[in-house]
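PT: before anyone asks, these are the final sequences, not the draft ones from last week. 222 residues across everything. Please model them as a single complex and drop the result in this thread when it's through.
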Amino acid sequence: MSFEPLEIFQHLFAAYGPQHWWPGETPFEIIVGAVLTQNTAWNNVSRAIANLKGEGLLSLEALYAAPPERVLRLIAPSGFYNVKYRRLQALLGYFHSRQGAWQYLHTAPVEEARAELLSIHGIGPETADSILLYAFGRLTFVVDAYTRRLFARLGEDWVEKAPYEAVRRYFMEGLPPDVALYNEFHALIVTHSKAHCRKRPHCAGCPLGQHCAAQRTAALCV
DNA sequence: GTCCAGGGCCTAC
DNA sequence: GTAGGCCATGGA
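LR: through. Structure below.
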């Protein structure tokens, strides 16, 4: 029994409804969160964001100019704070010095905008896609660890270890070119994974149960 | 105490 | 081109 990515989206949407992602109020907050959440549980990231917000540092110029030791202290709860500080500075430096960066990322062909973000130290494919999709509303699919695990369990085994670009292509070629759909799909994958996975053997009531059970005898659903 | 989380860079083969 | 080490906190 095979399936299309769109079917999985439809099952998840029916089960969980619209997610209204990203969990951040402004594009700048989304950008900062995208870096801080690298290989990190969101709960820890939200503490760091709250710290920055509480000290009025959730703006480009304020955060870029803030003393390193102050920023390090505030973002510490998100972990990897030394590397994340350098990556944040690199990204903020880009927006600070690159004239018309915001407009460019909004309007340039998406692959060009993506290449520009990827050239910044500390911005890899997932972070670039998160920024483009959620802060700029651009058409690009976000592939993360949840996405790989879920689709591997559903039967697309190759997705688990395949190069990022190959997985991204699989989704973008299998889905209609719809920013709102990409936005919701990634959010739904995260919501579903947190709700159902790795804690229970083969969850009862899993909205993907048909696909999952048909594909695997695996002990874990995602 | 152990494991792991919404990655990406650097270094060795 | 790719496998392995590294970065660090907080919750389960």
